[in-house]
Design a protein that fits this description.
The protein is 50% helix and 17% strand. It has helices spanning 26-41, 69-81, 97-104, 131-137, 140-149, 155-160, 171-184, 187-220, 223-234, and strands at residues 2-7, 10-15, 47-52, 56-58, 86-90, 93-95, 107-111, 115-117, 153-154, 166-168. A hairpin with a 2-residue loop joins β1 (2-7) and β2 (10-15). The mean pLDDT is 97.
Length: 242
């Protein structure tokens, strides 16, 4: 589920579960956490690129095999705390929990064809745990709209509101100067600079993780969530749609 490659100090971890649109299953979350641990400890790795196969970066939580909320919190925090820059390379669609991965990365670039949506409210839950990295890094007025409506928005809008660093026709061309820059930087300087940049995000984890984990668990076990997830899997509208 996680393919790995390396070129000139940049470790690429590729979400490779296209059969379920790279949904965040318990297994994928565990495997990605293990790969990040190894990359973080490897002195030959200067930066990590988080990429994907297929047309979807991640569809969010796997409704058939959802990760434990604590495990998802730990993965998001690991991305934020990794002592090396983490760069998201997106050429497909990003939904729900996938946006948490995106926001936890230090730099994120996407092709103009990518689309984004916080779809949680449409299945009876809330973007609880993923708010830990999303809220500190994203425009609050825009989030009010997209959290509450589940609307789809494009890569240009994602860049405008802070979910993306940049968008372009060729995502590799966008990332070329980024990866060149981190290759030229001192590893110790990169680690300390990242520590400065992520301090406010980690404050949110320290303050809010327990409450948001509890909220996520409560909502996922609710009657409306059961209806919403069943409707999603059956490809119909949930009963509350008017």
């Amino acid at each position: 589920m996680i393919a790995r490659s390396r070129a000139r100090g940049v470790e690429t971890l590729t979400l490779d579960s296209p059969h379920n649109r790279n949904a965040l299953s318990a297994a994928l979350v565990g495997e990605l956490a293990g790969a990040l641990t190894e990359a973080g400890a490897d002195t030959g790795v200067r930066a990590v690129v988080l990429a994907h196969t297929g047309t979807t970066f991640s569809a969010g939580a796997d409704l058939r095999d959802p990760p434990d909320p604590d495990a998802l919190v730990a993965l998001l925090r690991q991305l934020v705390e990794l002592p090396k820059p983490v760069v998201a390379r997106v050429t497909g669609h990003v939904r729900a929990g996938g946006l948490g991965l995106l926001a936890a990365c230090d730099i994120a670039a996407a092709a103009h064809t990518a689309t984004f949506a916080f779809t949680e409210v449409r299945i009876g839950v809330a973007p609880a745990v993923i708010s830990l990295p999303v809220l500190p890094r994203t425009d609050p007025r825009a989030l009010a709209r997209y959290y509450l409506t589940g609307e789809r928005f494009d890569a240009a809008e994602a860049a405008r509101i802070g979910l993306l660093t940049a968008a372009g026709d060729d995502v590799d061309a966008v990332l070329e100067p980024v990866l060149d820059g981190v290759r030229r930087a001192s590893p110790e300087a990169l680690a300390e600079t990242k520590r400065l940049l992520t301090a406010r995000v980690l404050e949110a984890f320290d303050r809010d993780a327990a409450g948001l984990t509890a909220l996520s668990a409560r909502l996922f076990s609710s009657a409306q969530a059961r209806e919403g997830m069943t409707a999603f899997l059956e490809r119909r509208d949930p009963e509350w749609v008017v």
